[in-house]
């Protein structure tokens, strides 16, 4: 009810201000005084919330101030907990994506390892393990090392055009 009366009073003053320049000056002086008082009250309240200038407060006011601070602290902790939970969920999601990507890469490595084993068997079943196919239409040879504890190793090298040179061993990758 009081706020309605205050609003009515302000609206009536504003209407009068528009008609009289003297009234306008008084209105703005009252408005400035009101804003100064609000600023003073806010500064005092801020000092009290910061634990300063508490000497003029009685027990009931101190208890009210303590309740305000506890309510504010609960709000801050709740917000912090919410942010931390969101961050944990995001990190778990990223970890899951990394795990999935690692599994896909592991499967690709196993597939390549199987393909290399099949190629190794095809080459050395036809030629024997000590021969390199020099009659191949491509001037390259490759070597496959099959060891389950060591990463897949492939190598390419060019063969000399002369047949009299010893077969070179291919460099091993990995």
From TrEMBL:
Coiled coil, from the record: 25-52
MF term (GO), any: DNA-binding transcription factor activity
Keyword set includes Hydrolase: no
Basic and acidic residues compositional bias, start-end: 1-15
Region annotation Disordered: where it falls in the sequence: 1-20
Keywords: Coiled coil
Any Pfam family: K-box
Gene Ontology cellular-component terms listed: nucleus
Chain ranges of the K-box domain: 25-115
PANTHER family given in the database record: SERUM RESPONSE FACTOR HOMOLOG
The protein's name: K-box domain-containing protein
Record organism: Digitaria exilis
